[in-house]
Amino acid sequence: MTVNITIDGQCIQTEPGKTILQVARENGVGIPTLCYHKDLSPTGNCRMCVVEVKGGRFLQAACVTPVWEGMEINTLSEKVMKNRKLTLELMLANHPMDCLTCDVAGECELQDLAYDYRVEVPAWGAKGTRYQVNSDPNPFIRVDFNKCILCRRCVLACAEIQMRDVWGVAGRGFEEKIVAGANTTMLEARCESCGQCVAYCPTGALSNKMNYGAGRAHQVKKVTTTCSYCGVGCQFDLLVKNNKVIGVSSNPTAPVNGMSLCVKGRYGYDYIHHPDRLMKPRVRRYLLEGKSKDDIRESIVDQRLSNNKLSSPWDWVETDWETALRITADKFRATRDTFGADKLGFLTSAKCLNEENYLMNKLARQVIGTNNIDHCARL
Fold first, then answer.
1. CA 232/CA 353 separation, integer angstroms
2. pLDDT > 70? residue 310
3. Are 95 and 110 in contact (CB under 8 A)?
4. How far is CA 377 from CA 233, 349, 358, 372, in A?
5. Given a cut of 90, is residue 305 above it in pLDDT?
6. Per-residue pLDDT reduced to its tens digit, 187-209
7. Mean pLDDT across the stretch 141-168?
8. Residue 134 has pLDDT above 90, yes or no
9. Residue 374 above 80 pLDDT?
């Protein structure tokens, strides 16, 4: 069963139950939105997606209005354009005018729409700063509700995707605002600091503290990679500026996780440039010299007595991967041949991919010849 509708004079055949916005986007018709996101339930509260439906008394929100047979829709009428501009003016009247120094300039959806519709701060003036900037002690998420447009994306993302229900709405009218819990701090409201709300925020109301002020959208290069913290395989974009990773952003096309990330995946990237990070494999000096522990035991005792820490055969020495793997393989082979395969055991990790754990299983059973293999998830 299909329905026939008309959008801006274009005859379209579609399925019943779809909204005007869905059909429009499927057919290349652009309708602006702020509160709508394909991952979240539509609410129709920002009123940017209003369209004119023939025979209707009022403009309809395209994101929540289903199509019906014979529906005629105009997305660019004078009435529609005037209403959208007024909506933007009202938002800008309650928005700080700090685009020159705002951290999300260049990727702010409100800024883009104001530019597209040539809307400026209304002549009757802006309200200015109403809330404390950086008001929440959360170590990862920066809160500035002066920039909030009450789109409720953060509320829906936390409730429907992360299922934590940290964010809510309090107050009425001009006093309406987004709050954490019962108007408390995010951590007291059981926030996991996953940054999901930041990823869906269309303005700078919610942003990342760790890379605040480090670079704007046009100053960074995005490099898609896979998270190294566990074996789920989540993907995201590393934000790179001057050959240094300054942050992480969600990649909507990630096949496993979409926009979702945990706190480690989104904010645990500072180890990349940490001075203590090992960049090359290390082995004991005596192994590189082809010696055994028996050969160096006396020298270790002499070193301890003299308290001399220079040039010890026990020192860690950087080497290349081929050398390190060769030494490891030789030790495995010598132990198996001398004491038997069952003297070796293998412990795999839940932080590895399924394929990597499978290869470890093959190494233990088929190469070494032992069934002594276990997984950290059972411990």
1. 7
2. no
3. yes
4. 17, 7, 15, 16
5. no
6. 999 999 999 999 999 999 999 99
7. 96
8. yes
9. yes
Is the model's pLDDT at 125 over the cut of 90? no
Q: What average pLDDT score do residues 228-252 get?
A: 93
Measured distance CA(25)–CA(69) in Å, rounded: 18
Percentage with pLDDT > 90 across the chain: 80
Tell the residue number behind the tokens 């007024």, with chain if given: 86
